[in-house]
Amino acid sequence: MAQYGIVSVERALDVLATFLSPTDSLGLADLSRETGVNKTTLLRICSSLERRGYLRRDAQARYRLGPAPYSLGKRYEAELHLDDVVIPQLRALTARTKESTSFHVRAASGRLCMYRVDADQSVLDNVKTGDRYPMDRGAPGRVILAFEGGGTPEQLETRRIGYYISYGERDPACAAIAAPVFKHGEEFCGALSVSGPVGRFDARYVRRILPEIIATAGRISAALGAGAAPAKKKR
After folding, report:
1. What ranges do the domains of the chain cover?
2. Hey, which bits of the chain come out as E strands?
3. Which CATH code for domain 80-223?
4. If you average pLDDT over every residue of the chain, what do you get?
5. Euclidean distance between CA atoms 126 and 174, whole angstroms
6. Among 13, 56, 166, 233, whose CB has the most other CB atoms within 10 angstroms?
């Protein structure tokens, strides 16, 4: 299918996307460097965005985000239903890996299985939607502890590599791999996990399914507003 677009609209969106990076304000030279658009064109774009409330200009003629993006973001957040995002991704991941998938969040001192999709094959770990589990046993809890800011060597390593693998921690017969999911502002949201018989999760098998798990966590995070792509320079 042909891809259609309006250059001026895409340039305006590129300008807004530059403000996704942490910054107080940007001048025309900064915006030109980031987007590849010349300053004369940028001035017209920024003036239009300013009139509509998407940008505001300070006393030094530098631009900051206006109130309109915040209003849109709050509206998006109000209409976003987590199950509409997570459940289809769990189903797709289960279809690809043939393993059971879950999404866990903190619940008081433990963790709650918020969503669960069982594989067709025998389910050994008996995890159910709505059940609560210890935080310090099993890959999902380990990920939650690590990405909520835990400072043990194990938690620091989990944050560095971006996942945790557990073997028989909660159930001796089961293994699990969990990866973090984030939402807008790169705020930690919960842990996506894949679980199955411990004997199947050898090193070769883990290497095969781990990219699928991380990619799925990334897709859920992107749908929740995390990791928005920066503006691309025009060539």
Report:
1. 7-75, 80-223
2. 55-57, 63-65, 100-107, 110-117, 132-133, 164-167, 174-183, 187-197
3. 3.30.450.40
4. 88
5. 10
6. 166
- Using CA atoms, how far residue 79 sits from 72, 120, 149, in Å, is 11, 32, 29
pLDDT digits (tens, 9 = 90+) for 126-156: 788 888 899 999 999 999 999 999 899 999 9
Question: What's the pTM?
Answer: 0.69
Question: Which architecture does CATH list for 7-75?
Answer: Orthogonal Bundle (1.10)
Helix, strand, or coil (residue 227):
coil
Cα–Cα distance between 176 and 195 in angstroms, integer?
4
Terminal-residue alpha carbon distance, the chain: 23
- Position 231 confidence tier, pLDDT thresholds 50, 70, 90: very low
User: Is 90 exceeded by the pLDDT of residue 166?
Assistant: yes
